[in-house]
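Task card 7
Instruction: Convert sequence to structure tokens.
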Amino acid sequence: MDLRPLEAFHTVVEEGSVSAAAARLGLSQPAVTARLRALEVLCGRALFRRRGNRLELTQAGRELRRRTEAAFRVARDALLHVREQGRLDGGLVHLAADGPFEVMSLLALVRRRHPGLRLQLGLGNTRYVREELESGRVDAAVLMVEEERSDWHLHRLAEDRLVLLLPVGHALAALPEVPLARLVEEEVVVREVGSITRALFDKACGHAGVRIAPAWELGSREAVREAVAAGLGVGVGFAAEQPPDPRLVVRPIAGVEMRIGRYLACLKERAQLRLNEELFRAARLLTAAGRP
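Output:
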């Protein structure tokens, strides 16, 4: 059986559109559409219906996805294992990360050890990185992890904690640490829902019994920093993500001692891929040397 129509089907489901699936597969949109039609002919039923600009699975499509998803993933991983053997000096590693921290030191070391290895990195919030990892669209990821997962292979790279960002001259900057309750009176700038920064901040507020309605929800740590520097409010971020900035003051948040690890992660069934083995070997070398 030709698996290419099934590959096109699952890729369209994962990406949400034919155009995105075509870009991921390196094909034209008509080629992907042709493969979907061939699969529908083979099944004798329509697998998608169009709702406005979106494609939705029909009942037959949902049934096909349910019955083939696990098997297709096993087949895809088997092909990966065979394909990646011996390709440390000519392969392509797809990575995702929830920020540039730690991952750049890791990539630099891997590249020094294997100059011919190509590395592709996508950056986004924690929800995006988890989805990329769990869908199999990336080989490995660097992200904050609250609780270790039994289905992930993990190596701890670093640890971090939440801090408060204040504009220079702000009254709270005179305190050695800022009580969480004091933020009720402030315009608070936070990351968007889906980021680990926001998840930990909301959890800290819940534990302290403090209700804080954010004044601004922004999509990157850089945007939070710039908003605070511009005087739009006080911000929340991770300590290790705050480079020196003469416009800002960084203070601990009193009573918020929650620490979180940043990990290199891959799906457990992909831990023995040679490319992933090399990533984890480099990660162990970095942490043994006290880096990044």
